[in-house]
Amino acid sequence: EKVRPFYSENNGRPSDPIQLFKMMFIGYFYGIRSERQLEREIQTNVAYRWFLGLKLNDPVPHHSTISWNRRTRFKDTNIFQEIFDEIVFKAINHKMVGGRVLFSDSTHLKANANKHKFSRVEVEVETREYVVDLNKAIEEDRRDHGKKPLKEKEEVTEKKEIRLSTTDPECGFMSRENKQEMFCYLDHRTTDMKFNIITDAYVTPGNVHDSVPYLSRLDRQVERFGFKVEAVALDSGYLTNPICKGLNDRNIFGVIAHRRYQSTKGLFPKWKFTYDKERDLYVCPNGQELQYRTTTREGYREYKSDP
Predict the structure, then answer these.
(1) How does pLDDT run across 158-177, given as a tens digit for each residue?
(2) Are residues 97 and 235 in the same domain?
(3) Is 50 exposed, middle or buried (0-12, 13-18, 19+ CB in 10 A)?
(4) At CA 113, angle to CA 111 and CA 116, rounded to 5?
(5) How many domains does the chain have?
(6) Which residue of 17, 50, 111, 247 lies most exposed, with the fewest beta carbons within 10 A?
(7) DSSP code of 241?
(8) Residue 282, Cβ neighbours under 10 Å: how many?
């Protein structure tokens, strides 16, 4: 029923989209990335034939049928997301998904693109969604502390130069310390704690930071599946101010790995300072009090001791 609008019912040969999607499932479950290889495997594997409803002497659908449907017929539709969601709903109905605790991470998938074949292009840096909320919170914090509003900042369009693959323009170039430089995609996955069922899968170019789509994908799962998320577990790549605030605003407990920063020699590390919430000040290990001074445009409160 979901793919009925994409096929003609009175023209061409009869189609079997269920069989088509089942073939893609086999490829996913058994790590068969080549559609040509998938066709050959199904020809000789009786279990695959049984799953697809094919008899021993029935012809196997040609590999080009899979690729043509995936690249052409279904390209500008959300049919894959709809079928994915339907599977999650089935898991929920069978009490295999709880929706209370979610784990998220991302992994890089190498694109089929030569890293030496690219052009350099200049693109505008997108304004992050949280910037408006951040500016509002900064002004409120300054007002609560009796500070004047910050002067309106003149908007300057920030630009950066990126490498655009001439083979696959949709992928992104990854260049990170201790990582292989390559054109790739970033596969974002969320799994439910109960039985490790995947509840969300989302792909971005490889030069998009792990944390950028996280909150929007979390909200989508809550709205789509009615999850009542109590806690999430994330690695250190997600330890950003917007995510910490976003989880706090949603009343979700976040378990996020952190990187241990090395403090400057001769200075106290931040964790040794004690915050006095009632008086809104910090006390250093030597007992010196640091009073509030201002809230910066970046959203940081500055505390200093009296001379």
Answers:
(1) 777 888 999 999 999 988 77
(2) yes
(3) exposed
(4) 130
(5) 3
(6) 50
(7) H
(8) 19
